[in-house]
Amino acid sequence: MKKLHVQRYSASNKQTWDTFVSDVEAHSILFYRDFMEYHSDRFQDYSLLVFQEKKLIAIFPANIDGEGIVHSHQGLSYGGLLFKPFTSLALRLEAYIFTLKFLEEKHVSDLFVKEIPQCYSNDSSNRLIFQWLNGTCIRTDIYSYLPKAFYQKPNRNRLRYLEKVRDLNIVVKPMESYSEFWEHVLIPNLKQRFEVNPVHTVDEIEGLANQFNKQIRLYGAHQSDSIRAGVVLFIHRDVVHAQYSAGDEGRSDGSLDYLIDFVIKKYNSAKIFSFGTSSEDQGKQVNGGLLYWKESFRSVHDVQHFFNIKTANHTALINRLR
Fold first, then answer.
1. pLDDT beyond 80 at 250
2. pLDDT at position 161, please?
3. CATH number corresponding to 152-267
4. Segment holding 51, helix H or strand E
């Protein structure tokens, strides 16, 4: 096998990086440089490119913290080494060996990886590789989604809410401005229910939506021109992810349920529909109410693991494939 080499990402690699992202098996708009760099002031980039001679075979979106530990990028929901479809296990093993050797030579002792949920990729070999590397699982989150063309109707409890909303003259439509949803629905909802703020400020999400105007969409459920509920969708190649969804204080009338039912029906025939995680407190607890709400739309579940890997353990992969 031709020898690999690893190098740090620089701005001169942007086009090469983004072209590769478009073709990876676990496609996500989160991996494009324009998305990653909207919060470059918060994270010191340590992204890597892995080449086989002159051919790019893998990329690793990453940052380094103040203690010299490298993370699959902490500003993203998932990560790790990204490969194109049908990359052989032998080449994946080599890529991990050379990446970890590179980090070890840079005096990085630990690598933290947020696993890519399985709904984004049919290849689960990363889990095997992390086990072979003696990686320590430090966190496990539950992750909910609807397989492609899976949705028919929600459960009976959710159907009752959809029946209630029929007389409210709710109209669902795409929205260009995010401020009304952010200020009047999303922020109050997250504060009241979870005591948190949105990950993105309204300026950040609008900036990203301007750059990714086909991939980031906001839909609102309106009653008499007043917004009752909203959902922000991140539209990847194979997956549509509900990044934010919230209803106003009167959401028990079914307005949010009506909106979610609408967008699932719009997208699920062609793409997997991701609800994301229901875990809280660094994966130590599951929000039962939130999880049931997702289950009421007939979601299925996977788990997302978080691993701590010692870079010196790259030797554990040698001779694993006979």
1. no
2. 92
3. 3.40.630.30
4. strand 48-52
Name the segment(s) of the chain with CATH classification 3.40.630.30: 4-141+304-317, 152-267
Give percent of the chain with pLDDT exceeding 70: 100
CATH superfamily, region 4-141+304-317? Gcn5-related N-acetyltransferase (GNAT) (3.40.630.30)
d(CA 80, CA 128): 13
Cβ count within 10 A of residue 145 = 25
What digits encode the pLDDT tens for the residues 62-85?
999 999 999 999 999 999 999 999
**pLDDT number for residue 322:** 80
Rounded to whole angstroms, what are the CA distances from 231 to 31, 173, 185, 256, 261?
Answer: 21, 11, 10, 9, 11
Dihedral sign of CA atoms 185, 191, 193, 199 in order: positive
Lowest mean pLDDT among 101-110, 157-166, 208-217, 288-297: 157-166
Give the phi and the psi of residue 94 in degrees, each rounded to 5: -60, -40
Distance (Å, whole) CA 172 – CA 230: 9
The helix-helix angle for 125-132 and 89-105 (nearest 10°) equals 50
Q: How far apart are CA 140 and CA 114, in angstroms?
A: 10
Q: Which two tokens stand for residue 133?
A: 């590397």
pLDDT of residue 1: 60
